[in-house]
Amino acid sequence: MAENYAAIQAEADRMAEQLSQMKNRLYYLSTSIKNIKHSMSLYQDMDLEKVYSLYGEITELFKEGTLQTLENVTEFHKNIHIKRSERLAKELKKLSTSHLEEEKSKIEMQKAFDEKMKLLAKSRALDYFAAINAQLTTLKNKLSKLQDYKNISSHSKKEMAVALKELLSQEVTTIDYLEAYKDQEHAVYLGFRNLANEFYPEVPAGISIQNNEGNNQERFKISAKIQNDASDGINEVKIFCYDLNNLINSKVHHFQSVFHDSRMFSDIDPRQRAILLKQANALTKASGMQYIATMNEDQLISLKDVLTEKEFEEIFGAIRLELKDDSPESKLLGVQIDMQYEKD
Known about the structure:
Protein name: DUF2326 domain-containing protein
Order of helices and strands: HHHHEEHEHEHH
Number of domains: 2
Helix content: 55-70%
Oligomer: single chain
Organism: Marinomonas primoryensis
Largest sheet: 2 strands, antiparallel
């Protein structure tokens, strides 16, 4: 492809304009030459003898001096014709020379223009070749991607089959494991049930572990249940029992404490709240763990009606930090923090 294609195109356009102007000038010169030749062919020489033959014997009747005047007129006419012929001849020569030079320039310009057009034609052919070659390259790339996809798809299917095989094997192992340990009394199971019975002695409660079948990332489906735990108060008690039980009885972690926010206690009645704090206090002391909770003042004051004075003083004496809203220093972190809860 010609690197200066645009420059050649511009030069060819300029030449085409010049050729058009040359053709117009040649047409003008040719027309002018034709008109001059036509004008020169129209003149017929008129001598005195023709005048005499025209008028014949009547010339004898002319006044004296008339024939002399005719001679002068004839001579004058001849002189005008000679001068006019000379002027037309000069003009014809000048126009013919200009026409010849213009025709020569036109031929040279036409030749140069044809060369430019040949170059442009070759460049266009190369452009077409490049376009086709680019399209071919694109198609080859698409074919390569399709082949890669086919290979990846085949490899993925193989890996998926292996994964499914492993998944089925794990399901069998899980079923065998659950079958072997289903009748064993584990501290985690017993701990949750015992805690729940402190709140609701007559209500069934427990933890169930099932095989989580299907394609998923969790092998076991673990659920804690207290009958009627759909209500807010019972659901919060269930969460407390589950968290505290895992802290104390589970052996697969290294946590030393568990924390609950005041929202945990908002829907729990004072009697159950008192049981919760007594159980948390007793069990964490016995196990060397720590239970941390934030509670509103009204949630604490309401415990006086369901706890003995000694029990209340013991719970109240466990307060380690009292938060207020009178200044930033009285807040949890000692500084004012504005949390942006609204979504953008």
